[in-house]
Amino acid sequence: MRWSGVAKTFVEGGGKQGAKSPYEGRGYLVLVGTMITRRFPRIAVMALLLAAVGCGGDVGPEIRPGFLTASLVSPNGSEGAALISIVGVGLGDVESAAGRVFTFSLGDTTRILLVLDTPGDLRFRISVPDVDKPPVGTVLQVADGENAIRPDLSEYWVRFLQ
């Protein structure tokens, strides 16, 4: 095998001109500080090549910014108010579908208070960086139509729709 420059010196003599390498003639390919064996199974080499080729043209899914409509799913039907926490990077404006909405954002968390004058469906729209990846919503508190706090929130959740 013929090498040039630093690699030739390293392979043929470990820094000494004309000295024989212990790897020479044994099926090893030595490149400055790295040992790669030719005895590596051909199947593994093919798998690596196919993986490298497969990664080349993959651009990934399209990112689609926009608005999602979020609604409170309640086992009790109509509600009067709810406090919801939304976690997600890049969350933007919040708009109420009905009633009043109050928001507070800190980092990647936005707390949303929805208040209706008459009990009904609690819904809002929120701006997100990718409508195909909805944020995570947690119900923190719910008040019924008479402004009484619901004691059990285990069956409440937030549904996001495009």
Question: Any overview of this molecule?
Answer:
The chain is mainly β. It has two domains: 5-56, no CATH class; 66-161, no CATH class. It contains two helices and ten strands. It has a four-stranded antiparallel sheet with strand order 5-8-3-10, with no helix packed on it. A four-stranded antiparallel sheet has the order 6-7-4-9, with no helix packed on it. A hairpin with a 2-residue loop joins strand 1 and strand 2. The protein is elongated and about 75 Å long.
Number of strands: 10
In the predicted model, the low-confidence regions spanning at least 5 consecutive residues are: 1-16, 27-36
Q: How would you describe the shape?
A: elongated
Helix content: 10-25%
Number of helices: 2
Arithmetic mean of pLDDT: 80
Major sheet size, sense and barrel closure: 4 strands, antiparallel
How far from one another are the termini?
63 Å
Radius of gyration from CA coordinates: 31 Å
Category by helix and strand content:
mainly beta
Largest sheet: spatial strand order: 5-8-3-10
What are the secondary-structure elements, in order, as H or E?
HEEHEEEEEEEE
Structurally, the number of domains stands at: 2
How much of the polypeptide forms β-strand, as a percent range?
35-45%
List the helices and strands and how they pair.
Elements: H1 5-13, E1 28-31, E2 34-37, H2 42-56, E3 66-73, E4 79-87, E5 94-96, E6 100-106, E7 109-120, E8 123-128, E9 136-143, E10 157-161
Antiparallel strand pairs: 1-2, 3-8, 3-10, 4-7, 4-9, 5-8, 6-7
Concise synopsis of the structure shown:
This protein has 162 residues and is mainly beta. The chain has helices at residues 5-13, 42-56, and strands at residues 28-31, 34-37, 66-73, 79-87, 94-96, 100-106, 109-120, 123-128, 136-143, 157-161.
